[in-house]
Amino acid sequence: MSMPAPGESWGRNSMELPRPESHVSTEGTLLDYGTATAARLLGSAGMDVEQGRAVLRGMLSPWGERPISRRPDWHSDVCADGSPIEFSAAFSDRCTQIRVLVEAVPDELTTPGAQKSALALTRVLIEDFGAADGRLAAVSDLFLPDEDPTGFAMMHAAVFTPAGEPEFKVYLNPNANSRMTGRQRTREALERLGFGKAWDAVVEYARRGFDLDRIVYFGLDLSEGPESRVKVYFRHYDIAPADLDACMEIAASHEPGLLGGFCRTLTGRVGAIRDQPLVSNLTFTDAGGCAPVSATAYVPLWLYAESDRVARDRISSVMADVGLSDDRYRSLLNHMARRTLSDGRGIHTYASVRVHRGRPHMTTYWSSELYDRYPPARYQRG
Questions:
Q1: Strands in 237-332 per DSSP E
Q2: 151 neighbors 2 (Cβ within 8 angstroms)
Q3: Among the four 118, 119, 122, 248, which has the fewest Cβ within 10 Å?
Q4: 342 pLDDT exceeds 80?
């Protein structure tokens, strides 16, 4: 099963709110749910619904044929409640993007089984939808090892925009086995991809050390060209937003001072974020060389709001603060939610905000909430 990195656990936090009985949707299959939800979101955003359905069918077949009521023993890394499908929406003053992230649920509940399912999905994206796997092929042996693999294998994402074909990306596991540490595997991957000197930026960014600023994902766009991205993701333990904001100044496009107020509004907390760690990434491209072109922070939501209604109102407040209308966000949330927002706190998982060249961008991430509307804390330090 998908496991926390060494020193982490999925245990509940002592400050967690009391949980009523878990919610399980028993209607239909994962494929039914995924294609129907994508159609609602894409239709609401004025995008190509049939294209989205086709992509989701490709991403969810054949493993998505299993009934939702038959909860897999494989605890997916995608959502806090173990759901293997996450939707998100990215907002700017120019357009809205709809995104979906999945982890192919294996028939054999082992990491080798997960590798097999993930590679099959990768082939579908390449052969049926034109994804490019050059960079992935260069590092696949690092992240999909034959010897003693552990944890999740790979997650896949599709990004839909108002114009053009969907874009695809993958997220890989730096802790894929114990024969290399997460930082060793990440450094080697950057070297193979031509970003060897970027490791200096990674070390500078994790200035408190890789135990507190832990590398947790390695992201690749399945595309070619100078803007194709390589991302290194971190989970930050016991860090004050102001301190993370200072770290993010390593990216030339970062506009300092935004993160502190963003975190306070979304979490209602002042100071270090401890109940559920902050996450961030550094992004590298050929066009940007070995200096990060951007840094993005992701604020966990589900433990810091008593309900999704509270989370919604806080997100609306942040959008107003940065000059974005919340109309599109609220409309999409209405199409995503399958229950009253006050009756749980598991839909909203993370939110991110950044200002690029004076233009605000905000992304909200939504759990499918197939198994639990009050999910526990994840990735607590042991």
A1: 278-285, 294-300
A2: yes
A3: 119
A4: yes
